[in-house]
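Researcher: I'd like a structural prediction for the single chain below. Treat it as a standalone chain; there are no partners to consider.
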Amino acid sequence: MTTRKNFRAAVYMLIKQGDKYLVIRRHNTGYRDGQYTVPAGHVDDGESARAAAVRELAEEVGLRAIEADAELIHTMQRHEGEFDYIDFYFNIAAWQGKPCICEPDKMDDLRFMTLKELETVGIPGVISALHAILIGERFSSLGV
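Model: Treating it as a single chain, here is the predicted structure.
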């Protein structure tokens, strides 16, 4: 009998200014602390990935968006540690507000950074996905 794989679902939101991405530095979470990532979070039970993207964007960096402005541009299947993930990357076409650190217990820096800058200080899976997005790949995998 084949065992079915169970996945966790995560969302990643791309907010850009020119060629720079809005990034946060993880802090005090126990997962990749000290590394930068785009705003991200888990999809809650009963929640769509788009709804999670809008919610997490507001919770993490104080930006308000609507689901219609969250365009799915990439999906990654990823294995990390003991978990398998499906990661949804959304380009957020429009938002309101000024980016700020809304969860200081989980992040300690917020800035705009180019992909080249992010390569030396970012989370490898996010960097891999951003490279795939740049060449138009709609799907990628990491560690699978």
